[in-house]
Amino acid sequence: MKGRTITLLVVFLLCVAFTVKAQIRVVAALCDNRANPVGINPRDLFFSWEMQSPKESVRQSAYQLVISSSKAKLTAGQFDVFNSDVVKSDQSIQVHYSGKALQSAQTYCWKVRVWDTDKKPSAWSGPQQFTTGIFTPADWKNARWIGYEDLPDSGRVVPFFHLQLKPGDSRIFKNARSPLLRKEFTTAKKVAKALLFISGLGHYEASINGSRIGDAFLSPGWTSYDKTILYNTYDITGQLRPGSNAIGVVLGNGFYSISQERYVKGTGTFGNPKLIALLKITYTDGSTDHLISDQSWKASPSPITFNTIYGGEDYDARLEQKGWNTAGFADQTWKNAVLVTLPKGKLLPEIDYPVRFLDSLTARNMKVVGPNIVVYDFGQNCSGVPRITVKGKAGQILKITPAELLHADGTVHQADGVTPHSYAYTLKGDGEETWQPRFSYFAVRYVQVEGVRVKGEEADLSEVTELKVLHNRNATSANGTFACSNELFNRIYTMTDWAIKSNLQSYITDNPQREKLSWQGEQNFMRTAINYTYNVYNLYRSLIQNMADAQHENGLVPDIAPEYIQFEGPFVDSPEWGTTAILDSWFLYQFYGDTSVVRKTYRMMTRYADFLQSRATNNLLLYGLGDWLDIGKVTPVGVTATAYYYHSISALSAMAALIGKPDDAARYRNRAETIKTAFNTKFFNPEKKLYATGSQTAMAIPISMGLVEEKYQKDVLHNLVTNIQAIDANRLTAGDVGNRYLIKALYENNHPETLFTMTNRDDVPGYGFLLKHGATALVETWDGKSSQNQLAMGHILEWFYEGIAGIAQKENSVAFKHLKLRPQPVGDLTWARGSFHSPYGWIKSGWTKAGNRFTYQVEIPVNTVATVYLPAKARSKITKNGKIVRDYKMETDAVLLELGSGKYELNVE
């Protein structure tokens, strides 16, 4: 009997285990597209989750989402904040909060469970949490903006002056001092929760009891400071001690104040560095205390003696005050902080990921290039700062200069007129000292250090014991991977990836050295390619806020936002750049399913659309920057400007319909058709079947944007391909506007072999050419000149993901709900694999080709479906997971399979 009981128990446990395994489960739960976020605004609050199941063709049939005021209550099933009950819906992304009003500066706990296609429930997800931010000025509890010294509004230089002011100009000002601010406080009772809300302009680093708070670099993010100022939220419960505590903050200038010492792109200032902070302490007995920034804080100059975002940073370690950010420090010589002129912008929570140091590079070699001068080669161009460890005597100074290139004599070469950007470190003479810049960075492959011991004989000079480069970028998660059998393509991918991540900061920069500005073209032309590599949902929401803040009274959205410098002519108003103001919201809907951003930005978008209409001549836009940095400059400006005009107005029509504005939708749809007619009348030659000059850009953009009339589509495509082969000899000529559409026109219209031939070479300007000539990050121009780290031409990644790896979504699909998986085994490729993290989960695609056998392995997320296209002929044998497939559709040279979620191996023979 005992043995039988044990046997039955084992059978029961195995059945339970099988049931658990067979059920759908929640594997990721996000709030505001982040895990356990802080600083949430309830007006933007939404939830998303990803699911997995070992079964095939699984969809969510219902969900239940609950929120509690504490983890204990959540665990106990006391859902005192919100309980959706069972909602019969397959919606698992962008589920917006619809419960009672939430309080500011509070942490809430939540979880979700789902039901599958067979109406079987999952287990609850693991407990999640989110912390709300500060909603109103009153919630700041009278916290004040403070600093070491004030700059009244009369000293402002806004907008910034492009480049340097002339000597004697009254607007010239000295580099704003970088101050230290500190405050001691006491916790008399046991702390349950401590939340710090803080902003420092231009940037800050904060600490509690001598330990850093967080690990962000250049916080908060860059904004139009007269409109928006971002603050950050930290849970510092674990950093507080019973009794005496101290908070310390060091401030830097960033884009808030840029003096014209050393290199500058623009000279100007919103004011001197300043701080606002609120620390909310909740005790276990339910009572609360609030520590605010005010005149009771103490202030002193920091050891940072110079810092600008463009020119670099200097640090004198002899000025360090040990223990300045700990309790008990003697600050009698410090002065009280001063109340400073209030910044004009509204405080809003930073919704994007912070910038962090996410890679550490070690020098591959070093070379002595002069008396006590050493150059280190790190082998990779990236956005970054040097971190140096040195031994020497107090007062010795090291000059540290980063660069992308070298002169013939081996010394560093800061090209593009960005000289000088440098750092100076003055030693304190206390054993090994390690230092890195806090408030500046550069594009760096090489680092030159002057004033160091190089032969071991200069005993009076400092000795460098370690030098690294720390790479800074936006800390958003990676979104995809790609590799294939063509090594050149893999190197192109890596080169482009370095340019992308080097320019993903708190906005998308065009390069990490000369500009550091947010030129709208980069995000307009590259958003899809960037999104396949990094999750940019939160970043693009921030970019949209910057554009709304930068919009002019007449509706213009300028070419850069924030508009720190007001340029002129096409450098302030180029439609290919400005239409980002419309197309970003369209992108967030198409790729992430966000309709709320469309509603929020609708007024901005329509104002800009009206501005474009006011600039149009007979429905044509005949001005702008055109196909920037193309080879030959042969595409008329009006082609690219008017095409983007049509594209953005068409998107605006669709968004108007999406949010319930049918009259607007019809009006913009009619306007788009009028633009299309005018475009074809102006630029299309129906006899030759050519657009404008017949350049790659002039032909490809109308094809990809839907501007070609149906009866001419085959002829225009034929002429594009023929011209590439016969006239251009398979050379790339398109610039950063047209290159994306050239790539799309070829791989989306059955000509990937032509694209393969153009890409798989290094003898003419293009991707391979850049690599052949030593580029490690994508360069600004096809010939390898100018900035050595710029992402603008990285559109080829769209083909790598959507074409070669075959990962895309069907037309009219939203957020990758319906996948289009169509790999392209072109050229000499024998295998390729890619992955992409969609809002519903990871999509994985990999294929191999051997003889007449094509094997395709694919993973489709739960709650989605896919149309799979396999290269096959009418008599091909198709198998799915080893079983013959008979139910499929046939197109020319392709078999179509409709698949639900799951993992599949498909074979074609």
UniProtKB/TrEMBL annotation:
<dbReference type="GO" id="GO:0030596">
    <property type="term" value="F:alpha-L-rhamnosidase activity"/>
</dbReference>
<keyword id="KW-0378">Hydrolase</keyword>
<dbReference type="InterPro" id="IPR013737">
    <property type="entry name" value="Bac_rhamnosid_N"/>
</dbReference>
<dbReference type="InterPro" id="IPR016007">
    <property type="entry name" value="Alpha_rhamnosid"/>
</dbReference>
<feature type="domain" description="Alpha-L-rhamnosidase C-terminal">
    <location>
        <begin position="811"/>
        <end position="883"/>
    </location>
</feature>
<protein>
    <recommendedName>
        <fullName>alpha-L-rhamnosidase</fullName>
        <ecNumber>3.2.1.40</ecNumber>
    </recommendedName>
</protein>
<feature type="domain" description="Bacterial alpha-L-rhamnosidase N-terminal">
    <location>
        <begin position="189"/>
        <end position="357"/>
    </location>
</feature>
<dbReference type="GO" id="GO:0005975">
    <property type="term" value="P:carbohydrate metabolic process"/>
</dbReference>
<dbReference type="InterPro" id="IPR008902">
    <property type="entry name" value="Rhamnosid_concanavalin"/>
</dbReference>
<dbReference type="InterPro" id="IPR035398">
    <property type="entry name" value="Bac_rhamnosid_C"/>
</dbReference>
<dbReference type="InterPro" id="IPR013783">
    <property type="entry name" value="Ig-like_fold"/>
</dbReference>
<dbReference type="Pfam" id="PF08531">
    <property type="entry name" value="Bac_rhamnosid_N"/>
</dbReference>
<dbReference type="InterPro" id="IPR012341">
    <property type="entry name" value="6hp_glycosidase-like_sf"/>
</dbReference>
<dbReference type="Pfam" id="PF17389">
    <property type="entry name" value="Bac_rhamnosid6H"/>
</dbReference>
<dbReference type="InterPro" id="IPR035396">
    <property type="entry name" value="Bac_rhamnosid6H"/>
</dbReference>
<keyword id="KW-0732">Signal</keyword>
<feature type="signal peptide">
    <location>
        <begin position="1"/>
        <end position="22"/>
    </location>
</feature>
<dbReference type="Pfam" id="PF17390">
    <property type="entry name" value="Bac_rhamnosid_C"/>
</dbReference>
<dbReference type="Pfam" id="PF05592">
    <property type="entry name" value="Bac_rhamnosid"/>
</dbReference>
<dbReference type="Pfam" id="PF25788">
    <property type="entry name" value="Ig_Rha78A_N"/>
</dbReference>
<dbReference type="InterPro" id="IPR008928">
    <property type="entry name" value="6-hairpin_glycosidase_sf"/>
</dbReference>
<feature type="domain" description="Alpha-L-rhamnosidase concanavalin-like">
    <location>
        <begin position="370"/>
        <end position="456"/>
    </location>
</feature>
<feature type="domain" description="Alpha-L-rhamnosidase six-hairpin glycosidase">
    <location>
        <begin position="479"/>
        <end position="803"/>
    </location>
</feature>
